[in-house]
Amino acid sequence: MEINQLFGLPAHPILVHAAVVLVPLAVIGLLLIALLPSLRPKYSFLVAIVAFVATGSVGLAQGSGEAFLESVKRTQLVVDHAQMGEDLLPWAFGVLLAAAFLALVEVMRRRDKPLNLPAKATSIVVVVFSLLVSAGAIYTVIKIGHSGAKATWNSVKP
């Protein structure tokens, strides 16, 4: 989905901040509910919603970035940033998948219909998966953000 402008301004610099805030927020929530099961009853559904919105914000940032690319000078830094921008969606989706699974487990537990999965093995897999996608998502947000800042500010002389 391409969005060119918001409020008369280029959309990408505005929309990218939603992803930059929401993806790490979803990661923090995921890590908390994955590592501290006592928080799941109260927060798993909220974390899943934040992860869903974060994943959507990544898609919007990517779409607006594609539109924005047509209006800026294509330096190597800009091209590199655009290519890196494609890397975040799979990580955000992984965060969403883990958060949604934990929310589903909690919903089923509340309905007294627990999933028929080995508890200890499932818990270990979910925690390890959550740690991996969280690390990948945070690293990728930082890498893309840094490349975008370099592409933006490289030509500015102090």
Textual characterization of the structure:
- With 158 residues, the protein is mostly helical.
- The chain has one domain (5-153).
- It is built from five helices and two strands.
- The protein has helices at residues 11-35, 40-69, 76-85, 88-110, 119-153, and strands at residues 5-6, 9-10.
- It has a two-stranded antiparallel ribbon with strand order 1-2.
- It is elongated, with a radius of gyration of 18 Å.
- It starts with a strand and ends in a 5-residue tail after the last helix.
- The model has no long low-confidence stretch (mean pLDDT 88).
Strand-pairing-aware structural class: mainly alpha
Q: How many E strands? A: 2
Percent of sequence in beta strands:
under 5%
Question: Percent range for helical residues?
Answer: over 70%
Report, as a whole number of angstroms, the end-to-end distance: 36 Å
Please state the CA-atom Rg, rounded to the nearest Å: 18 Å
Task: Count the domains.
Answer: 1
What is the N-to-C order of secondary-structure elements (H for helix, E for strand)?
EEHHHHH
Mean pLDDT: 88
Q: Report the major sheet.
A: 2 strands, antiparallel
C-alpha geometry: elongated
Spatial order of strands in the largest sheet: 1-2
Number of continuous helical runs: 5
- Uncertain spans, ≥5 residues at pLDDT below 50? none
What's a quick, concise take on this entry?
The protein has 158 residues and is mainly alpha-helical. It is built from 5 helices and 2 strands; from the N terminus they run E-E-H-H-H-H-H. It has one domain.
